[in-house]
Amino acid sequence: MPPGSPALRGQRESGRGGRKLFADKACLTCHLSDGRGRAPSLNGLYGAKVLLAGGSTVTADEAYLRESILDPMAKIVAGYQPLMPTFQGQLTEEQILNLTAYIKSLATQPVPATGSGIAPATGRK
Protein backbone atom coordinates (compact mmCIF):
# COMPACT_ATOMS: atom_id res chain seq x y z
CA MET A 1 0.00 0.00 0.00
CA PRO A 2 1.32 3.46 -0.80
CA PRO A 3 2.17 5.50 2.34
CA GLY A 4 -0.62 8.03 1.72
CA SER A 5 -3.31 5.51 0.78
CA PRO A 6 -6.68 5.79 2.55
CA ALA A 7 -6.44 2.15 3.70
CA LEU A 8 -3.06 2.68 5.38
CA ARG A 9 -4.20 5.98 6.89
CA GLY A 10 -7.24 4.15 8.29
CA GLN A 11 -5.03 1.47 9.85
CA ARG A 12 -2.87 4.12 11.55
CA GLU A 13 -5.95 5.94 12.83
CA SER A 14 -7.41 2.68 14.13
CA GLY A 15 -4.15 1.93 15.91
CA ARG A 16 -4.26 5.32 17.62
CA GLY A 17 -7.88 4.78 18.65
CA GLY A 18 -6.92 1.35 19.92
CA ARG A 19 -4.07 2.78 21.98
CA LYS A 20 -6.46 5.16 23.73
CA LEU A 21 -8.95 2.35 24.30
CA PHE A 22 -6.10 0.15 25.63
CA ALA A 23 -5.46 2.83 28.24
CA ASP A 24 -9.13 3.64 28.90
CA LYS A 25 -9.97 -0.03 29.56
CA ALA A 26 -6.90 -0.34 31.83
CA CYS A 27 -5.31 -3.06 29.67
CA LEU A 28 -1.94 -1.38 30.23
CA THR A 29 -2.09 -2.11 33.95
CA CYS A 30 -1.50 -5.83 33.30
CA HIS A 31 -0.01 -5.98 29.78
CA LEU A 32 3.23 -4.11 30.49
CA SER A 33 5.61 -3.64 27.57
CA ASP A 34 8.60 -4.78 29.69
CA GLY A 35 7.00 -8.18 30.42
CA ARG A 36 6.75 -7.59 34.18
CA GLY A 37 2.95 -7.38 34.34
CA ARG A 38 0.33 -9.85 35.49
CA ALA A 39 -0.36 -10.55 31.80
CA PRO A 40 2.02 -11.08 28.90
CA SER A 41 3.57 -8.17 27.06
CA LEU A 42 1.97 -7.61 23.65
CA ASN A 43 5.21 -6.38 22.06
CA GLY A 44 6.09 -8.57 19.08
CA LEU A 45 2.99 -10.69 19.63
CA TYR A 46 1.12 -10.35 16.34
CA GLY A 47 2.09 -13.15 13.98
CA ALA A 48 4.13 -14.99 16.62
CA LYS A 49 3.45 -18.41 18.10
CA VAL A 50 2.05 -18.20 21.63
CA LEU A 51 2.74 -20.95 24.16
CA LEU A 52 -0.46 -21.95 25.93
CA ALA A 53 -1.03 -23.64 29.27
CA GLY A 54 -0.92 -27.34 28.51
CA GLY A 55 1.97 -26.97 26.05
CA SER A 56 0.18 -26.32 22.74
CA THR A 57 0.81 -23.24 20.63
CA VAL A 58 -1.38 -20.91 18.61
CA THR A 59 -0.51 -18.20 16.10
CA ALA A 60 -1.38 -14.73 17.35
CA ASP A 61 -3.46 -13.69 14.35
CA GLU A 62 -6.56 -11.50 14.20
CA ALA A 63 -8.84 -14.42 15.17
CA TYR A 64 -6.72 -15.17 18.25
CA LEU A 65 -6.68 -11.51 19.30
CA ARG A 66 -10.46 -11.23 18.90
CA GLU A 67 -11.04 -14.42 20.87
CA SER A 68 -8.66 -13.28 23.60
CA ILE A 69 -10.52 -9.97 23.96
CA LEU A 70 -14.01 -11.48 23.95
CA ASP A 71 -13.35 -14.86 25.61
CA PRO A 72 -10.02 -14.60 27.43
CA MET A 73 -10.48 -17.93 29.22
CA ALA A 74 -10.56 -19.84 25.90
CA LYS A 75 -6.77 -19.98 25.55
CA ILE A 76 -4.62 -19.21 28.60
CA VAL A 77 -0.99 -18.24 27.96
CA ALA A 78 1.47 -20.54 29.73
CA GLY A 79 2.78 -19.10 32.98
CA TYR A 80 -0.16 -16.74 33.55
CA GLN A 81 -3.25 -16.93 35.72
CA PRO A 82 -6.65 -16.55 34.01
CA LEU A 83 -7.27 -13.02 35.33
CA MET A 84 -8.39 -11.10 32.26
CA PRO A 85 -12.05 -10.08 32.24
CA THR A 86 -14.18 -10.62 29.18
CA PHE A 87 -15.06 -7.63 27.05
CA GLN A 88 -17.95 -9.46 25.38
CA GLY A 89 -20.87 -7.02 25.12
CA GLN A 90 -18.72 -4.13 26.37
CA LEU A 91 -16.98 -3.17 23.12
CA THR A 92 -18.38 -2.27 19.74
CA GLU A 93 -17.10 -4.00 16.62
CA GLU A 94 -15.19 -0.82 15.75
CA GLN A 95 -13.52 -0.83 19.18
CA ILE A 96 -12.50 -4.48 18.77
CA LEU A 97 -10.99 -3.65 15.38
CA ASN A 98 -9.19 -0.63 16.85
CA LEU A 99 -7.74 -2.68 19.71
CA THR A 100 -6.66 -5.36 17.25
CA ALA A 101 -5.01 -2.73 15.03
CA TYR A 102 -3.16 -1.33 18.04
CA ILE A 103 -1.91 -4.76 19.13
CA LYS A 104 -0.83 -5.46 15.55
CA SER A 105 1.11 -2.17 15.58
CA LEU A 106 3.15 -3.50 18.53
CA ALA A 107 4.52 -6.34 16.38
CA THR A 108 7.63 -4.30 15.61
CA GLN A 109 8.30 -3.31 19.22
CA PRO A 110 11.11 -5.03 21.16
CA VAL A 111 10.03 -8.29 22.76
CA PRO A 112 11.07 -8.49 26.42
CA ALA A 113 13.44 -11.31 27.39
CA THR A 114 10.77 -12.69 29.72
CA GLY A 115 7.06 -12.14 30.06
CA SER A 116 6.03 -12.17 26.43
CA GLY A 117 4.11 -15.44 26.18
CA ILE A 118 5.76 -16.04 22.81
CA ALA A 119 6.78 -19.66 22.31
CA PRO A 120 10.53 -20.23 22.21
CA ALA A 121 12.01 -20.99 18.80
CA THR A 122 12.28 -24.70 18.15
CA GLY A 123 15.43 -24.50 16.07
CA ARG A 124 13.82 -26.50 13.23
CA LYS A 125 14.39 -25.35 9.67
Topology:
Blueprint: H1 6-24, E1 49-51, E2 57-59, H2 62-70, H3 93-105
Antiparallel strand pairs: 1-2
What can you see in these coordinates?
- The chain is mainly α and 125 residues long.
- It has 3 helices and 2 strands.
- The protein has helices at 6-24, 62-70, 93-105, and strands at 49-51, 57-59.
- The protein has a two-stranded antiparallel sheet.
- Helix 2 (62-70) packs across helix 3.
Brief overview, please?
The protein has 125 residues and is mainly α. It has helices at 6-24, 62-70, 93-105, and strands at residues 49-51, 57-59.
The largest β sheet comes out as: 2 strands, antiparallel
Cα distance, first to last residue? 31 Å
Shape: globular
| Range of helix content | 25-40%
Poorly predicted runs: 1-13
Strand order within the widest beta sheet: 1-2
Radius of gyration: 15 Å
Order of helices and strands: HEEHH
Total strands: the figure is 2
Count of separate DSSP helical elements: 3
Mean pLDDT: 89
Descriptive key words:
single chain, 125 residues, mainly alpha, two-stranded antiparallel ribbon, 3 helices, 33% helix
